[in-house]
Every structure is written in structure tokens, then in C-alpha cells.
Amino acid sequence: EIKKGNDSITQLLSNITQLKEKINTKNDVIKTQEDVINNYKMEEAASKEAYLSLKTDYMQSTRREEILTTDTNQLKKKLQEAIEKIEQQDNALKYMHQTMDE
User: Fold this and answer.
1) How far is CA 58 from the centre of its chain?
2) Cα–Cα distance between 42 and 28 in angstroms, integer?
3) How far is 58 from 53, CA to CA, in rounded Å?
4) Which long-range contacts (CB under 8 A, 24 or more apart) does 1-9 make?
5) pLDDT tens digit string along 34-89?
6) Is the pTM of this model over 0.70?
7) 3-state class (DSSP) for residue 8
């Protein structure tokens, strides 16, 4: 009877040990899954940061392009005005030479 009791206790201890091992294995799996989730979260955060950086760069580039376009248009206008003045002066000189020749 005592032997049966000892065998039962030994079997229970063995079962408890197996259950502990299963629990530890499942805990390891959970920890691994949590690590994977945390890695994804870090990658997501890094991706968002990279996206925002690219978006900022794009917006700054677009703004610089607008400024350059405005500056270019102003320079074109000033150049056209300068050309018109030169043409007026040239015409005035031609007229003066023509008048002097007559």
C-alpha cells in the first residue's frame, strides 16, 4: 500500500515537473512573440519617422522650387525691361544719327 502511495506521489511529481516544463516552454513562446511584436513596433516607428522626414524634405524642396520660380520670373521681367530700355536707347541713337546725317 505504501509502495502504491509512493508510486502515486512519484507520478504526481513527474506530472508536475512536466507541466512546469510545458508552462516554461509556453512562456518562452509568449516572450518570443512579444519580442517580435516589439520589433515590429520599433520598425513601424522608424518607418513613420522616415516618412515624416521625407515628407518634410519634399515640402522644403517644393517651397524652394516655388521661391526659385518666383525669382526666375522676376529676373525674366527685369531682363525684358532692360532689353526694352536698350532697344529704346538704340532707336533714339539711330534717330539721332539719322537726323544728324540729314
Assistant:
1) 10
2) 21
3) 9
4) none
5) 999 999 999 999 999 999 999 999 999 999 999 999 999 999 999 999 999 999 99
6) no
7) helix
The rounded distance, in Å, linking the Cα atoms of 33 and 23 is 15
SS (H, E, C) 25-71: HHHHHHHHHHHHHHHHHHHHHHHHHHHHHHHHHHHHHHHHHHHHHHH
C-alpha cell recorded at residue 58: 519634399
Chain position carrying cell 546725317: 101
**Proportion of the chain in helix, strand, coil states, percent, rounded to 5:** 100, 0, 0
